[in-house]
Amino acid sequence: MKLVIQRVKKAAVKIENKLYSEIDKGYLIFVGFHKNDDEITIKKASEKIVNLRIITDNQGKMNLNINQAQGEILLVSQFTLIADTNQRRPSFIEAMKPEKAKKLYQLLINFLKEKNVYLKTGQFGTYMEVELINDGPVTIVMEI
């Protein structure tokens, strides 16, 4: 599993030029599922996301997690994160098949909601336009 976590001031997903979801301060998270990921991987990821301290406190130090900062998460599935780029044309053979990936995506959503995170999502398997204002910029790449 690969996650790209961006600390944002705002982020939004549009589908067919219509606003689908948006957040204010928090994280825009792109998630790609590797073919060997499972429920244990998803549970670890949810723990790491919720406990990640990359939001600045009153002293300007990255010291707060998403809940402490009362931030929001916009979670967007993106299988291209699993690309093998050793050749000119990326290979996605290591990416999980869509049917199984959709189930793990929903499981990740459920685990995050159980942790009282304010969460919005993209739409799995759909062409989306993603807009963001990166805060910092702060971008964390996490592999689990």
Provide a concise account of the structure shown.
The chain is an alpha/beta fold. The protein contains two helices and eight strands.
Structure description:
It is a single chain. The protein is 21% helix and 40% strand. The chain has a single domain, classed as D-tyrosyl-trna(Tyr) Deacylase, Chain: A (3-Layer(bba) Sandwich). By secondary structure, the chain is an alpha/beta fold. The mean pLDDT is 97. The radius of gyration is 15 Å and the shape is globular. It starts with a strand and ends with a strand. Helix 1 crosses helix 2. It has 2 helices and 8 strands; from the N terminus they run βββαβββαββ. Strands 1, 2, 3, 6, 7 and 8 form a 6-stranded mixed β-sheet that branches.
What is the H-and-E element order? EEEHEEEHEE
What fraction of the residues are assigned to beta strands by DSSP? Answer: 35-45%
Overall average pLDDT: 97
Low-confidence stretches: none
Number of domains: 1
The helix content is 10-25%
CATH superfamily: D-tyrosyl-tRNA(Tyr) deacylase
Level-2 CATH architecture: 3-Layer(bba) Sandwich
Distance between the termini: 5 Å
Q: What is the makeup of the main sheet?
A: 6 strands, mixed
User: What gyration radius follows from the Cα positions, in whole Å?
Assistant: 15 Å
Q: Could you say what the CATH topology is called?
A: D-tyrosyl-trna(Tyr) Deacylase, Chain: A
In the CATH hierarchy, what is the class? Answer: Alpha Beta
Compute the number of strand runs: 8
Structural class: alpha/beta
Counted by DSSP, the helix tally is: 2
Which geometry do the CA atoms define? globular
